[in-house]
Amino acid sequence: MSERLAIAGTGAIACGLAAVAATHGRVTVLARSEGSCEKAQAKVREICEKLGASVNGNVHITRDPAALADATFVVEAIVEDEATKVDFWRRMRDHVSDDAVLATTTSSLPVTEIARASGHPERFVALHVFNPVPKMDLIELAYPPEATERTRERARELCKALGKTAVEVPDIPGFVVNRLLFPFLFDAVRLMEETGLDPESIDTCMRLGAGHPMGPFALLDLVGLDVAAAIGRAIGIEVPARVQELIAEGHLGRKTGRGFHTY
């Protein structure tokens, strides 16, 4: 991997991307707190062990944004909220190098506004990585109008170095995958609400009848119901009542141990 990669965030996407990158070179992870540092260290180590690679020496986890200065490719992988991402990039302007490519892992938000908050939209890209990162081969790439061809080349080269397939997509809400996927997922919830079928039965139908690797409810739980609701709002579709109820109860899916299924 020719780029010196830095990742801001300690969630599932950030840790998964860090672990995959660490099999190809050194990577810096920027965390918000000491607790986040410890959790990220444990999560990255767990993913690396599953990959059968001993690469933890390649991962440097820190709370100091000054550590981003040496990176040539900086990826923000924080909460899926436009205001939070815009604020992050405004605060990072003095900490990133003048030639670094800047990226966000947003799965549904407008790239252009986030890019302009960075102060360098010509060097900005949406790097939509899918969860779980080690298993999912696709990365959707979306750009603001100002992005240069060199930025596009470097983004494609990074994806290739990570062993991923890059597809350039338009900067529209949800890009391609989520724009098509979430209406289907939410229709499954409405079917459950209308018929009384349980989530397991619908998941089984879609796995065995449609050949899906997992059913819609298992996938919603994997994504996180809070994230799913945010994506739904971003692409302009109604979030089903049951999804909103589970979020209000604090049941967000796998990350909390319960969503439509119990883990």
Give a verbal description of the structure.
By secondary structure, this protein is an alpha/beta fold. It has ten helices and eight strands. It has helices at 12-22, 34-50, 82-92, 111-117, 149-161, 177-195, 199-210, 216-223, 225-235, 241-248; strands at residues 5-8, 27-30, 59-62, 73-76, 101-104, 124-129, 138-142, 165-168. The protein has an eight-stranded mixed beta sheet, with helices on both faces. β6 and β7 (138-142) form a beta hairpin. α1 packs across α2, α3 (82-92) runs parallel beside α4 and α6 packs across α8 (216-223). The longest helix is centred in the last third of the chain and has 19 residues, at 177-195. The chain starts with a strand and ends in a 15-residue tail after the last helix. 45% of the residues are buried.
Structure keywords:
single chain, 263 residues
